[in-house]
Structure formats: structure tokens, C-alpha cells
Design goal:
Blueprint (H helix, E strand, L loop, with lengths): L7 H15 L7 E2 L1 H8 L3 H14 L2 E4 L3 E4 L5 H22 L5 H20 L2 H18 L6 H12 L8 H16 L3 H11 L2
Antiparallel strand pairs: 1-3, 2-3
């Protein structure tokens, strides 16, 4: 994920994603290109591109000749299943690749951790949720899990639609710090234990 959006498309995508996470759009509602283009003061192109991106990420469902619909959050039973699969992906990647983490890739993880801390300090839940995912993605990439990212992102988007873990922002940061510390020491087993404690 880029630190600053560089294009109109990225800015529109980020804003719509934030709106989805904050509950601005009701689950099951249809989003209209022309309405959002007017709101953002842009042409319909960037909005259309945002819809495609967010459909790939799993936040929206695209229907030919109808538009895009805001996906419903998973029910508790499905969310438990999704959580277990996400845990399995992350732990598999870490166990396989933690020993190969480079100084450069670890620095990217550390930057993501710092960004999560800044979000926790600011106390904005939607930003914390996105920084949380950004951190975990940086861990996967550092451990060589690039091939898993597509499926993993879909799982994350489903979980984010019911993300309610922000009662204690300090604890949110601490759990991720506890993932980073053993990763920095190439301790795959302890990193996995911290990931399993965090993802729930």
C-alpha cells in the first residue's frame, strides 16, 4: 500500500473504502457512479476504477447492467471460518519464510507498525483497521508470501466489514508489536503464536 495516494483513482478508492468501513453505505445498497462522481468532483472514470478495485478486494459485488452492491458482512459462523483460514495463511507463510526476512523488508514492516501506532494514538477506528491490514500484509510480503495476497485480501475485506476490536487502542498496537519483535529475531514459532493471538 502506498503511503500517500498519488492519483485521483487512488484517492477516490481510498475514500470509498473508508466510507464502507465506517458504515456510511448500508449493506446491500447499490452504489451509483454518477452520484459518487458528483460528490468527489471527478469524472465517472475514477469512480468506475474504484468500483473494480473494491470489487476485487471483496468490499463490493459487481452485477452486470445493475451496478455494484455493498456486500453484507459475514454471519458469525462464516466469520469464524474466514478467521481460521486467514490465520492458516499467515502462519503458513511465516513458518515457511521468517528465516528469509531481510533487513530491508523488516524495515517496511517496522514502518507499517509505526503507522499503526500513529493511527491508534489518533483513535480513528477506520484508519486503525486499514493500518492493521497494512501491517499484516507487510509481514506476508517480508516472508515471501506474495502469491497468497489475492486470497488473503479477500478474507481481510470480509473481516473488516465486522471489525470491532478497537475498544482498547493501546492493546491493538501492543499485539502487533508482539508480532514484530519475534519476527525481527527470525523466531517463526513465537511470531505465529502472536499472530494467532491477534487475529480473532
Amino acid at each position: 500500500m502506498s503511503i500517500q495516494p498519488k492519483t485521483v483513482r487512488e484517492q477516490v478508492t481510498n475514500q470509498i473504502r473508508d466510507d464502507l468501513l465506517s458504515g456510511r453505505f448500508e449493506a446491500g445498497s447499490m452504489l451509483r457512479e454518477i452520484e459518487l462522481a458528483s460528490r468527489f468532483g471527478v469524472s465517472r472514470g475514477p469512480v468506475r476504477d474504484a468500483f473494480i478495485q473494491l470489487s476485487h478486494e471483496g468490499y463490493l459485488a459487481y452485477y452486470a447492467n445493475r451496478g455494484v452492491m455493498v456486500r453484507h458482512p459475514p454471519n458469525p459462523e462464516d466469520r469464524k471460518f474466514i478467521t481460521a483460514i486467514r490465520q492458516d495463511i499467515e502462519t503458513h507463510v511465516v513458518l515457511k519464510g521468517a528465516s528469509q526476512v531481510t533487513e530491508e523488508s523488516l524495515k517496511v514492516v517496522e514502518v507499517a507498525l509505526d503507522r499503526l501506532k500513529a493511527a491508534c494514538d489518533a483513535g480513528k477506528a477506520t484508519v486503525i483497521a486499514l493500518r492493521d491490514v497494512e501491517f499484516h500484509e507487510s509481514v506476508l510480503i517480508a516472508c515471501g508470501g506474495d502469491d497468497m495476497l489475492g486470497a488473503w485480501r479477500q478474507l481481510c475485506s470480509r473481516m473488516l466489514l465486522t471489525y470491532t476490536r478497537h475498544e482498547n487502542y493501546a492493546q491493538t498496537y501492543r499485539e502487533h508489536f508482539e508480532i514484530f519483535t519475534p519476527l525481527a529475531d527470525n523466531d517463526a514459532k513465537s511470531t505465529v503464536a502472536a499472530i494467532r493471538a491477534n487475529i480473532r
